[in-house]
Structure formats: structure tokens, C-alpha cells
């Protein structure tokens, strides 16, 4: 068994990424712990989310690999937008991960045309869609391996190699554990090359 947070950081480090740029917050605290527990990753604390996003894309440019940025919910996610737009316009591969409230306390789960439901919550998935290759809400632990693989495939895949992804994940998911057999089974069920989920 492995925690979802540890699995995400394990996959990022397996791609050769050595630094994750972050601003701490309650909704991403388990991922911060996962960075600490991963001997192949070093977390770099920033003073502002915009600085973290710009550091991630600069890391990508200078290291010929993708950059990784971790922030908390609501304004933590929206503060990265300048860096996300820069990466989108200049085709710089990055993965941005934002913590989020418990799924049932989100706009998406409510199904209602609201502006906010949970504390410090925003619909970051739809806010980021126009300037990312794909922006998704991960509401089930079994889907995390699929979405991480989607990003890795896009990073490697021909003309679509410049992946820019925003993952929006409930804070409860980070703590849950998932078995390697469940990860493998889920990936086998979804064994296909990724289609373009969103594009300009």
C-alpha cells in the first residue's frame, strides 16, 4: 500500500525531477510531507505562488525536464496563473498541483451555479482550462495514477510533448492509501494513448 501523496511524488521523481517549488497550505500539507519523505526530491519553499510557478517553468527551461509546482486551494491556485500562462504561451512543460477542499465541499460536487462552497475554494479546474493542455479535478484515489500517466505521456508524445497540466485534488485523497494492484488494475482498464482533453 502507498499513500496517494507519496505515489504522486514518487512518479514525479521517477521522471528525473529533483526539485518541487511550493507555498505551504493546509490543503496540500500531505504532499509537503511526501516531498520530505522522498529522498530523491527537494522541496523549495517560496514566498508567493506566482514566484513558485515562475520558478517551476524556469527549472523546466534550464534542466530540459518538466517543472513541478505545488500550492494550496483557492487564491493559492489562482496566484499561479501568470506562471501557468507563461508556460502555456512558450510551450514549457510543467505540472501544477493544487490542494482542494473535501470534494463534497466544492462547486463541482454541488452541481449548482455557485461562486464558492467550501472555505477558500474556487473552481480552479475551469479557470485554468483555457491555458493548460488539461486541467482536471481528481475526486477518486483510483484515478490519480491515470492522470499522472496522462501527463507523462503528453510530455513525451511528439508534437504534443509540451504538456502543461493543472491537477486539482481534494486534501482527503492525499492521506488515503492505494494498493499497487489497484493502481495496476486501473491503468490496465484505461490502457490507451491520451486524446487531447482540452486545447485552444
Structure commentary:
The protein is an alpha/beta fold and 200 residues long. It has a single domain (2-189), classed as Thiamin diphosphate (ThDP)-binding fold, Pyr/PP domains (Rossmann fold, 3-Layer(aba) Sandwich), CATH 3.40.50.970. Helix content is 42%, strand content 18%. It has ten helices and eight strands. The strands form two sheets. The protein has a six-stranded parallel beta sheet, with helices on both faces. Strand 2 (19-22), helix 2 and strand 3 form a beta-alpha-beta unit. Helix 1 (4-14) crosses helix 2 and helix 3 runs parallel beside helix 5. The longest helix is centred in the first third of the chain and has 15 residues, at 49-63. The protein is globular, with a radius of gyration of 15 Å.
Chain-wise SSE layout:
Elements: E1 2-3, H1 4-14, E2 19-22, H2 29-37, E3 42-45, H3 49-63, E4 67-71, H4 75-78, H5 81-89, E5 94-100, H6 107-110, H7 124-128, E6 134-138, H8 144-156, E7 164-170, H9 171-175, E8 177-178, H10 180-189
Parallel strand pairs: 2-3, 2-4, 4-5, 5-7, 6-7
Antiparallel strand pairs: 1-8
Helix pairs in contact: 1-2, 3-5
Give the helix/strand class. Answer: alpha/beta
Going by CATH, the architecture would be: 3-Layer(aba) Sandwich
**Cα-atom radius of gyration:** 15 Å
Q: What is the string of SSEs from the N terminus onward? A: EHEHEHEHHEHHEHEHEH
Give the N-terminus to C-terminus distance in angstroms: 39 Å
What does the main sheet amount to? 6 strands, parallel
Tell me the helix content.
40-55%
Indicate the low-confidence ranges by residue numbers: 158-162, 193-200
Classified by CATH, the class is Alpha Beta
The count of domains is 1
Q: Estimate the global geometry from the Cα principal axes.
A: globular
Mean pLDDT over the residues: 80
